[in-house]
Hints:
- The chain is 58% helix and 14% strand.
- 26% of the residues are buried.
- By secondary structure, it is an alpha+beta fold.
- The chain has helices spanning 2-32, 66-90, 96-119, 140-159, and strands at residues 38-42, 46-53, 122-130, 133-134.
Amino acid sequence: MIRERVMRSLYVLLTLGILALDQATKALVTSRMTLYSSVPIIRDLVHLTLVTNRGALFGLFHDMADPYREALFTSVPILAIVLIVVFQCRTTVADTAAQSGLALILGGALGNLLDRLRLGYVVDYLDVFVGDHHWPAFNVADASICIGVGLLILDLLASGPGQRRAGVPPEA
């Protein structure tokens, strides 16, 4: 029981760490850069480029009318956050990959939701590209969500089909 509480506390700390790192990096970038300015980190590969994202993932639906966009991009993340917490509670703490993945996704979702609630948009600044091929700008929260989803996929692939149910560890 004590071990379970300690493990759950570590996953909470991972979530809060991602949230803090995301908000700190966004504050640092916005305090030192102007909108659309760019600073090379690794020339012709990675730049810091300050942009705002009023849309969803990679700017999707950015042109949707404001009342609908605001409601959609606030309610969907809140629903996702509730579901993630439910999945965390129903997943055994020994399932490190799933719990870590969920904690990373939760930290990222909270970071981007906080931006939307506070600013009305998400701050993005990591600009990765090769030649003329740019990946849409992103931030620590987005990277955390992607890594978390990757961990969940790996966990599902490792457990095999039909071997996992929430709250029940896979059979040995």
